[in-house]
Amino acid sequence: MNIKPLSAALAVSPQIAPTDVPAIAASGYRAIICNRPDGEGADQPSFRRIQLEAEAAGIEIRYLPVIPGQLSDQQASEFGRLLDELPKPILAYCRTGMRSASLWGLSRGASMAPAEILTRAAESGYDLGALVRRMTAPGNASGIVDASHEVVIVGAGAAGIAVASSLLARDADLDIAIIDPSDVHYYQPGWTLVGAGVFDASETVRATGALIPRGVRWIKSAVSHFEPERDTVVLEGCRRVRYAQLVVCPGLKLDWGAIAGLEDTLGANGVTSNYRFDLAPYTWELVRRFQGGTVLFTQPPMPIKCAGAPQKAMYLSCDAWRRRGVLDKADVRFESAATALFGVADYVPALMDYVRAYGIRLDFGRRLTAVDGAYRIATFAVAGPEGERVERVPFDMLHVVPPQAAPDFIRASPLADPAGWVDVDQASLRSKRYPNVFALGDVANTPNAKTAAAARKQAPVVAHNLLLARGRGAREARYDGYGSCPLTVERGKIVLAEFTYGGKLAPSFPAWLLDGRKPSRLAWLLKERILPPLYWRGMLKGREWLARPEMVG
């Protein structure tokens, strides 16, 4: 924990974990305020989990979520009321503590001098200068710029760091800033293997600061909103950053709260998901302990990050049970909102061989809507000719893939299409409305598979076309929709799906060496041994091995 006092009555901190609550209670805190909406991060515990721990420790707790950059006077007033009414001392938290500190500053504006607010916040590591401008001169604050850069990248995930490195490989003198509040960076493709006991979770995480390319400024903050007409990004705390070119790649949002009861039981009662860093080890724990029963693997409506991941968890679990001799005691069901096993038909025959070998029941057109962990009941909306009907299925183990959407600050922005994704040309990855804005990765509305392999191909395209927009070069680079999904059908074998827009096959290797339509040990070696170092030492370093962009014109 990193608790920072703002007054005798209030301290703020970054995200806390349920396991932190006993220490918080031992430190004397009598109340907790959560200012972070559920579902913002892949490693974020739900408010409900923390609430249960707080209540068990005798701590009062309240939920006052604030979307980054959308802090309102009404929320500040409510925060002030909680400060007055809750037992003290109080701990407030959000992702970094900035939203909680900002709420405190706004709520104390009528009773404290601005200089005192600034000083107390600065002593705790929070710069509320822009917030004070909002309080003292709201009519003039919107024109003040706190920083300016040639290129601003929103998001320090795989896409953001890769495109920054690709830009620097082309122009080492470029002035680049990356905006991201997270201290940690995850190799998310590895979580499938964590859930299968092949990788340790620690192998999939590194410090963000260690990965930001040298010479790139890291602005450790969350984005509030965009003002593309002013070439400006507004951060939480009302700070403003101006750009000449903008690259948007913050990833997507896992909407755990869209499934009733799910957040109350994740990580317990046999309910897990490889889509979250802290839960993937629990998947392996459940698989190791399994002695028989009904096992459900769900897939929500598209689009989702890595559409093959729901199946990967299923196949690897079945393989582990087969090796232990308990597969015949498992009633395994794939409960999918889709209408087919996989979106590219060429790979389905090999997958169906494993479905039959493992005795998996395929149920399509089924959307998970609720989970009762205590009674181990999953509720589905089942599509039919006369509309949806409700079906409740008992389970012993449930692997959930949550619905997924663009982050809230993207969906509410002028950059988004009607579905909420950043609206770009699918070949150039340039905004259809703003010529100096580009987007890539999971947040772009391109009709490709949302995978790290796609981002690896997109990053050089964005880097090249951004410099083209700055007057460098004559030909435009084109992204062809490449995506890759290594479908782990058993421990030691993979069906390596590679395809471009429209499901056209796009193998990286000759068929005599590796035919992706068939299960292969070489593809497993690629997934287990080659791709992780290729990610850390290649893609994130701007080395474009097998990723040189195609030029047109």
Explain this structure to me?
One of its GO terms (molecular function) is hydrolase activity. The protein is of the alpha/beta class. It folds into 3 domains: 4-141, Protein tyrosine phosphatase superfamily (Protein-Tyrosine Phosphatase, Chain A, Alpha-Beta Complex); 147-252 and 406-476 and 544-552, FAD/NAD(P)-binding domain (3-Layer(bba) Sandwich); 256-404, FAD/NAD(P)-binding domain. Helices cover 29% and strands 23% of the residues. It has 16 helices and 28 strands. Strands 6, 7, 10, 11, 12, 13 and 24 form a 7-stranded mixed beta sheet that branches. A hairpin with a 4-residue loop joins strand 1 (4-5) and strand 2. Helix 3 (73-85) packs across helix 4 and helix 7 packs across helix 15. It is globular. The mean pLDDT is 93.
Q: Give the tally of structural domains.
A: 3
Taken as a percent bin, the fraction of beta residues is 15-25%
Number of helices in the DSSP assignment: 16
Mean pLDDT: 93
User: Do you know the CATH topology of the largest domain?
Assistant: FAD/NAD(P)-binding domain
Domain Beta-lactamase hydrolase-like protein phosphatase-like: 6-108
Keywords: FAD, Flavoprotein, Oxidoreductase, Quinone, Transit peptide
Domain FAD/NAD(P)-binding: 150-253
GO molecular function, one term: quinone binding
